[in-house]
């Protein structure tokens, strides 16, 4: 049966006007009901690099502003079949490149949770604020990126959940800044088919929601092998993971929790305090806490920012103004159309990464940069394998009973900066901001950022071994419920 579900359009448009979280809103969402599904009638927003609704798929870029994909992403198709209502497509850093969501052709996304927090902490009463909203000019904070629109849509209560993509933290960082749950599953769990590639050996579809229960529900529905995605985890591996998890029969009463020493470096005092508070709480609840050593993760940022631009440079070579997307009208004397097309169609950050990536892949730098970064990635994976109790089904690691069930670390170095602060950051400072999220991206590990009960939103990550998504989600739920 198809129907027109009642979306509160004025509420969506009001939130859109304040926070700029959508690249397009569907005024009336036609949808097919599925009364057998727990996702039936749930409202959802989709990051605008996931192809397949009649509206364009833009990747937050001028290059694809009018691009209508002939494909429908498997994850979107599944959601529609389960009766989910797609409210709109969400704003993002162009092609997923950024941590601030200020690199979008649609303008920045603003942080709804910070907005609420500032109002709560201000000296004005609620009715004074409501009556004179424009008069009180609080500095706007960023939502974080690159799935900033998805995080803001969830934080402002206009959808039940949203899909994002996480290459090096793009689901978790905005979740942390906006005070919502951001789950990045194991690489290969959810289908990437129909998701526009940024860096294909990292890109992972992730889920943003207000609670872990909803994230788990959506994950359970989408967690299936897809033969159209060559990187989808094969059924025998999925089966092996399930068998191992069953044989371990791990309850949640006494978890072995690792605290990565190397991630203790540059976090600011508010984040550190909240981290310590959570660890003490877990200790009091009778879990075992241990410091763990992951020496190679100090090289995560250089490794990530060498490999990812290299993959991106190859992936983005297709935007040349000939096949699809933006085409320059410049009648330059050059007979090369693609140079002005790419110059005008891409934003600054994308151009920077394409240049870096092509250099890394050049004859000059391939061994000294690209291969070195691959080696570091391998070392990082090995380091993680040494600390977990659950074996890695890809590397057949031999874990010991002294291994950890999960690791806990902050998601971001600080709370969300203001838009002004973000705009004054150098590209290198923006890269460094991902220090806490890229290690598990390099190793493809399931990781969930959970909002702490702090006045300003702060997220803590639960990191698990490759394939151990259910333990990560169950432990995250335990943490969220016991706060
Ligand atoms: N896409 C992501 O996961 C965000 C990361 N900051 C990047 O620019 O690569």
From TrEMBL:
Question: Where located?
Answer: Mitochondrion
Q: Which Pfam families match?
A: Amidase
Give the catalytic activity. L-glutamyl-tRNA(Gln) + L-glutamine + ATP + H2O = L-glutaminyl-tRNA(Gln) + L-glutamate + ADP + phosphate + H(+)
**Segments forming domain Amidase:** 44-112, 140-473
| Family annotation (InterPro entries) | Amidase, Amidase_CS, Amidase_dom, AS_sf, GatA
Which PROSITE patterns did the record assign? AMIDASES (PS00571)
Q: List where the protein spans the membrane.
A: none
GO molecular function ontology, one term from the record = ATP binding
Summarizing the function annotation, the protein's role is: Allows the formation of correctly charged Gln-tRNA(Gln) through the transamidation of misacylated Glu-tRNA(Gln) in the mitochondria. The reaction takes place in the presence of glutamine and ATP through an activated gamma-phospho-Glu-tRNA(Gln).
Looking up HAMAP family in the UniProt record yields:
GatA
Q: How does it assemble?
A: Subunit of the heterotrimeric GatFAB amidotransferase (AdT) complex, composed of A, B and F subunits.
**UniProt-recorded name of the protein:** Glutamyl-tRNA(Gln) amidotransferase subunit A, mitochondrial
* Naturally occurring in which organism (per UniProt): Komagataella pastoris (Yeast)
Starting at the broadest rank, the lineage of the source organism is: Eukaryota, Fungi, Dikarya, Ascomycota, Saccharomycotina
Q: Which gene encodes it?
A: HER2
